Amino acid sequence: MERAGSWTGSPLIYHAYKSVGEIPDLWQDRGFVNQKEKRGLPSMDRLPGDQQSCSSTDEMRPMDTVRIAAVGAGVVGLSTAVCISKLVPRCSITVISDQFTPETTSDVAAGMLIPPVYPDTPIHKQKQWFKETFDHLFAIANSAEAEDAGVLLVSGWQIFRSIPTEEVPFWADVVLGFRKMTEDELKKFPQHVFGQAFTTLKCEGPAYLPWLEKRLKGSGGLILTRRVEDLWELHPSFDIVVNCSGLGSRQLAGDPKIFPVRGQVLKVQAPWVKHFIRDGSGLTYIYPGISNVTLGGTRQKGDWNLSPDAEISKGILSRCCALEPSLHGACDIREKVGLRPTRPGVRLEKELLAQGSRRLPVVHHYGHGSGGIAMHWGTALEAARLVSECAQALRTPAPKSKL
Amino acid sequence: MRVVVIGAGVIGLSTALCIHERYHSVLQSLDVKVYAERFTPLTNTDVAAGLWQPYLSEPSNPQEAHWNQQTFNYLLSHIGSPNAADMGLAPVSGYNLFHEVVPDPYWKDVVLGFRKLTPRELDMFPDYSYGWFNTSLILEGRKYLQWLTERLTERGVKFLLRKVESFEEVARGGADVIINCTGVWAGALQPDPLLQPGRGQIIKVDAPWMKHFIITHDPERGIYKSPYIIPGIQAVTLGGIFQLGNWSETNNIQDHNTIWEGCCRLEPTLKDAKIVSECTGFRPVRPQVRLEREELHVGSSNTEVIHNYGHGGYGLTIHWGCALEVAKIFGKILEERNLLRMPPSHL
């Protein structure tokens, strides 16, 4: 049984890549990162990106390279790093995480572009993020890179057992060909009285994340395997930290608002299924992908358990077969669990950490819940803009500007 | 009552099944045999991509439109059965693309959710300016023939590998009714100047990210001469070849290039797709399907021949409607010969 999004256990693979110049000897020999490493970095340890030693991050000349660390290597961390590398001039970007694909939450997610609901975020903002993500992935889907990036177009139906209050959701004109299902189409689902038909995108973590990593590497970004226990560990080696640690922000940002919503899914072989089917509540779904079909799911608030539950698997299969009886012939069933990093809204804001005379600008970018993949590019663009503002502020000579 | 079906493509096997389903319980004894020179995977049905879609223009015989619809509804009734995939059957949605505005097809209310393409959808296909989206069905030839063979075997229908030289030979062998489902080779049993091969070549690739069919149309070039991409259960069929009168059974390199270039231009993601196989088939082209009865006088007895061939590039699309029609004709023959124990329940 595979476990995803695990915070403990398995040996970690050394992911650091060279960019410009040599990596200090201290790091070249490292095969495994010792998780029990002391908090913070002793003054001897230098992280890649330490191209010049600054006595204090508060003094920075306008032409200096801004050293940025992104914590987290799920879809949010990697896409933010890529956006930063494109948007922020004269910067170095290092992604630091203890988990990489295929062990992140993003690898478990089916990756369907159907937006979640963020009660604390204004609708126009959600729509903007979704549209930006959709447009970004749509371009990839229509290019020769689609297979490499794990992005594909899928059509299907969202069906309801009773007429929903909102027959046309805010994202109806972002997806393609949105319309109400006809009576004939609804006959396929005798227990449902209303439905929406549309074409959307699917973006698969196990292909997309490596694709992002390649993009990042291509623009000089670095990737480092390390478990960060405290954001201050990154000071003074980095000038700005982007916190994309998802559920890890409970600890790293001391945020009690973020909690897991456990999702169990089955990945099965059923290549004849060409359409997605989603029950309006979002609890039961069938999402055909490139090499398997994802059947789901569960929404278990506050549940941190990463081990699949056999009873739940039976329930998922049964609910999905009720919607699509041909799934009785599905085989090679694999159970997976992911913990959605859930929050009333995505936390996308700057924070200046202060400790004595030390200052560390942080951009928080986490809490996407069930919408990590659906919203990632839009929120990453915004996070990159915030990082750019921080970089600007750092480069602006005295009087010291407040962030 | 001895019935011999000649031909083991989709037409032969489905007709055999239809007749057996409807009459075995109302006849004293019904013996059905299938004679064919080629069985799956060597039939033309095996080459077909299997998408249910009639030609765009109305058929010269309006009955064909009815048979197409009957087939769609029959197949649709199996969606929702756990065995649909065993039949090679699955719903599939996709795009029909044109260079200019065209009238809606006569079958637009048969398929599901028929609509025009939106501008953003058309953006995906820069060479085309108009199109349709609808949900239809895939009926994969090979899988369906295997399924039909299993159903027929369960019913005790026998299969014989035989090259039939004439109807007379089969009649002298004891057949009371012969169903002629010889497809593109019907001319060998009875000359038919209206029947011609419409040679097709297809490339099957591994491209599991393709969930939609994409069919382009070029009215100047004609049907099936424009690139098409049709996902099957495992592989994706690429095509776009239609050569009237060409009997060459070998794959042709120019045709390969035509298909490959056309489909990769249409769908750039295909450029790295792995080729699984490549085959050639012959659509049994005819101005309309020959579906009619003919009496054969062999010696002192009368043998009935029911012809059911000439389904062009829409054999899978129309097969069940034609099978039902043949079954109707068969029923009439039984009535004429006073062979029915009770009225057939299915007609």
TrEMBL record, chain A:
What is an example of a Pfam family matching this protein? Answer: DAO
Q: What is its EC number?
A: 1.4.3.1
Could you tell me which species this protein originates from? Balaenoptera musculus (Blue whale)
Record protein name field: D-aspartate oxidase
Known role:
Selectively catalyzes the oxidative deamination of acidic amino acids. Suppresses the level of D-aspartate in the brain, an amino acid that can act as an agonist for glutamate receptors. Protects the organism from the toxicity of D-amino acids. May also function in the intestine.
Instruction: Give the domain of life.
Output: Eukaryota
A Gene Ontology biological process annotation? L-aspartate catabolic process
| Positions annotated to bind D-serine | 228
TrEMBL record, chain B:
Biological-process GO terms, alphabetical: D-alanine catabolic process; D-serine catabolic process; digestion; dopamine biosynthetic process; L-leucine metabolic process; L-proline catabolic process; neutrophil-mediated killing of gram-negative bacterium
Q: Which GO terms describe its molecular function?
A: D-amino-acid dehydrogenase activity; D-amino-acid oxidase activity; FAD binding; identical protein binding
Q: Residue ranges of the FAD dependent oxidoreductase domain?
A: 2-328
Classification via InterPro entries: D-amino_acid_oxidase_CS, DAO, FAD-dep_OxRdtase
Q: Name one Pfam family in it.
A: DAO
* Catalytic activities: D-leucine + O2 + H2O = 4-methyl-2-oxopentanoate + H2O2 + NH4(+); D-dopa + O2 + H2O = 3-(3,4-dihydroxyphenyl)pyruvate + H2O2 + NH4(+); D-valine + O2 + H2O = 3-methyl-2-oxobutanoate + H2O2 + NH4(+); D-alanine + O2 + H2O = pyruvate + H2O2 + NH4(+)
**Protein name, as recorded:** D-amino-acid oxidase
Q: Which organism is it from?
A: Balaenoptera musculus (Blue whale)
**Organism classification:** Eukaryota, Metazoa, Chordata, Craniata, Vertebrata
